[in-house]
Amino acid sequence: MTEFLSDVDALAAEVPSGALLALPPEYSFVPMALVRAIVRRAVKDLHILTVPINGLAADMLIGAGCVRKVECAAVTLGEAGLAPRFCKAVENGSVEILDSTCPAIHTGLQASEKGVPFMPLGGIIGSDILENRDDWKVVDDPLGEGNGPIVLIPALAPDVAIIHSPLADRDGNVWIGRRRELATIAHAAKKLLVTVERIQDESLLKDEASAAAALPGFYVTHLAEAPAGAKPMGLVEHYPADAAAISEYARMARSDEGFRDYLDRYVYDEGNAARGAAE
Amino acid sequence: MSYSREEFLITTIARLLETPDVRHVAVGAASPIPGAAALLARHVNGGRPRVALIHGKETNPFTDGGREIFDAAGQGRIDVFFLGGVQIDGQANINLVGTGDYPTVDKRFSGSFGSAYMYFTVPKVILFRPEHTRRVFVPKVDFISAPGVSEPNVHRPGGPKYLVTELCVMSFDAKRQRFRLESVSPGVTVEEVLDNTGCDFDKPENVPETPAPEEDRLALLRSTVGAQVADTYPGFARDVLGVAA
């Protein structure tokens, strides 16, 4: 059963320190209001997994000291440039970095979806990504068909995954549209925290068109309404990414002091963060 | 007709997409110049190649999540993809991670994205890096996000075919493991390319000049094709092509 919670702060209490936390891609449904709530709770020692890349959410969690390890194919603010807190933390060694590549992250999650311990993936051989991944193994084609060496990616099972969505129903079914990587994340994760713009009474499974776009509620452990919960990132057909707000973050997060000011203004101050964004 | 640096790069890349082997071009994140080149090539060739812009809406054909582009590439359904590099070396190794000793590099960049897979699976990877300096083109990259060449026993239908920079176009020969200078941008000399390249490459005796943008293509970029570009890259279309979304 999906547990319906009151708000993002109640959801954030479900993220324990030390968890492997999966974050959706920056072009998808990013639960920024929930990320800010996690920062406010001062969760520590997270191992964040970007699926397969992320930007603002990962950078903010890293800057706020919530993260011990970053596993990513990339962390970037896109048109706003490099992710300043991520880059700095990797350069000074204050977070451990596990560099990956996009399909390896998808593949690790797919292994968890299927309940198998690993899955093979082409490419990668000869890269320094592989050189630095003691957890990945290269084997010769085990079927003896002469296909050469291939990389085995261990299953990735996030302790917690967090996503945002435009819509859910009272059974905890969540609309994800064609953002099917959110389904992959959900299938692989042990706990899934979802924020939504709104909850409707009618079941998403009643109509075949909305059912095809739905993530079934049995994957959704906790859910709360968070209107405008992706802002300043965009939510398709609801609101575009706020390029000015993301640029402001990029500018402020360049320095330690500027980043602290950003947190004070937009994260710790509830009025400006969760409630203000809801207006 | 005068043209911008970006318009020159767009028309240069578009010419590389107008060969019979190119049926499907995919363009990754934040790549408006390759994206515009693909849309231009599609328009002037009557709908071929197919173009997939992963950040587009109607121009993004993928409906099965982030993995679909990689699965499609693994099956050979994508013929062209674009990659760049903070550093690129003479064996076409690319570095998207950072400079200095890994992991606590001197200067960290975003990360390798899908390069370590797409470089192996897409038959015609075009390296696109406008900045052509010795900072970028180094003797040996500090970190190999994706290797330019592989041992013969490694399954690798894909790899680098061309490099496009502000100064020149080069081809890459996987057998020789070397770049070859194909043409230099208008007003650029071979010496300038040599001076700004920190790795070795082949130089034919006579190096032609990369053609300037064709007038009809410039006109298309600033109108019909520009409007298509604006659907996915509104800021770029407005600032560079003068086309409103």
Task: Please explain how this structure is put together.
Chain A is globular, with a radius of gyration of 19 Å. In chain A, helix 10 crosses helix 11 (271-277). The longest helix of chain A is centred in the middle third of the chain and has 13 residues, at 102-114. Helices cover 32% and strands 24% of the residues of chain A. Chain A has 279 residues and is of the alpha/beta class. Chain B is α/β, with parallel strands linked by helices and 245 residues long. Chain B has a single domain, classed as Glutaconate Coenzyme A-transferase (3-Layer(aba) Sandwich), CATH 3.40.1080. Chain B is 28% helix and 19% strand. Chain B has helices at residues 5-16, 32-44, 68-74, 115-121, 190-195, 215-221, 224-232, 234-241; strands spanning 24-27, 50-53, 80-83, 87-89, 94-95, 98-99, 107-108, 124-128, 137-138, 160-164, 168-173, 178-184. In chain B, the strands form 4 sheets. Chain B has a 5-stranded mixed beta sheet, with helices on both faces. A 3-stranded mixed beta sheet of chain B has the order 5-4-9, with no helix packed on it. In chain B, strand 6 (98-99) and strand 7 form a beta hairpin. Chain B starts with a helix and ends with a helix. Classes of the chains: A alpha/beta (279), B alpha/beta (245). Chains A and B meet through strand 6, helix 4, strand 7, helix 5 and helix 6 of A and helix 3, strand 7 and helix 4 of B.
Ordered list of secondary-structure elements with their pairings:
The complex is a heterodimer of chains A (279) and B (245).
Chain A: E1 3-4, H1 8-12, E2 20-23, H2 32-40, E3 46-50, E4 53-54, H3 56-63, E5 67-72, E6 74-75, H4 84-91, E7 96-99, H5 102-114, E8 118-121, H6 128-131, E9 137-140, E10 149-154, E11 160-169, E12 174-175, H7 181-188, E13 192-200, H8 208-212, E14 214-215, E15 222-225, H9 243-252, H10 256-268, H11 271-277
Parallel strand pairs in A: 1-15, 2-3, 2-11, 3-5, 4-6, 5-7, 11-13, 13-15
Antiparallel strand pairs in A: 8-10, 9-10, 12-14
Helix pairs in contact in A: 2-3, 3-4, 5-7, 10-11
Chain B: H1 5-16, E1 24-27, H2 32-44, E2 50-53, H3 68-74, E3 80-83, E4 87-89, E5 94-95, E6 98-99, E7 107-108, H4 115-121, E8 124-128, E9 137-138, E10 160-164, E11 168-173, E12 178-184, H5 190-195, H6 215-221, H7 224-232, H8 234-241
Parallel strand pairs in B: 1-2, 3-8, 4-9, 8-10
Antiparallel strand pairs in B: 4-5, 6-7, 10-11, 11-12
